[in-house]
Write a structure and sequence with these properties.
There is one protein chain. The protein has a two-stranded antiparallel ribbon. The protein has eight helices and two strands; from the N terminus they run H-H-H-E-E-H-H-H-H-H. A hairpin with a 2-residue loop joins strand 1 and strand 2. It has about 170 residues and is mainly α.
């Protein structure tokens, strides 16, 4: 009979990431905040990477141009935020009164993506000119946004990631 915590933990079957996720995100609001934070962080990293690649002329990436006008990713972010806001006004995907379902998860992810696309070009809407590569466009915005996204992921998903790491360590030890 296992007596120590370590022995009891080693005798339990390995749980799947999905079961750990369901255990740690029983609260609808907590899951939505977590999903938005993860989408925000990933979108920010991906968009910055793509933008740096375009600026450095790496690969076959280029700016989006419609009828001779460069369409900044800020525009796509605003459109996403407007769409999610409208859906939430209509109570679509809010999770109100029932367990979280796919529209609620999707709108939370879309909100995080839209916020990242919009805030990544914060300097553009602050200065009303394209200063993305200038000093004004890059001083502290990157650090503040990245820190905020990491903080959000940690706050809303810290217990989940801790449990996931604990289960992975148990699986490796076996």
């Amino acid at each position: 009979m296992p007596t120590s915590y370590r022995e009891r933990a080693a005798s339990r079957p390995i749980r799947s990431p999905g079961s750990i996720y369901r255990e740690h995100f029983t609260d609808v609001r907590r899951e939505r905040l977590f999903l938005s934070s993860v989408a925000f962080l990933l979108t920010f990293v991906i968009v910055r990477s793509i933008t740096y690649a375009i600026h450095a002329q790496v690969g076959h990436l280029h700016d989006v141009v419609v009828h001779g006008t460069h369409v900044h990713h800020l525009v796509w972010g605003i459109l996403l935020l407007l769409g999610v806001g409208y859906l939430w006004l209509a109570q679509v995907g809010t999770g109100v009164g029932r367990p979280l379902d796919w529209p609620s998860r999707l709108t939370a992810l879309m909100y995080g993506i839209g916020a990242a696309l919009t805030l990544d070009e914060f300097a553009l809407w602050l200065h009303l000119e394209d200063v993305y590569w200038a000093r004004e466009g890059r001083q502290s915005v990157d650090a503040v946004i990245l820190f905020g996204a990491l903080l959000g992921v940690g706050i809303w998903g810290g217990r989940f990631f801790h449990a996931l790491a604990r289960e992975a360590a148990r699986a490796i030890r076996r």
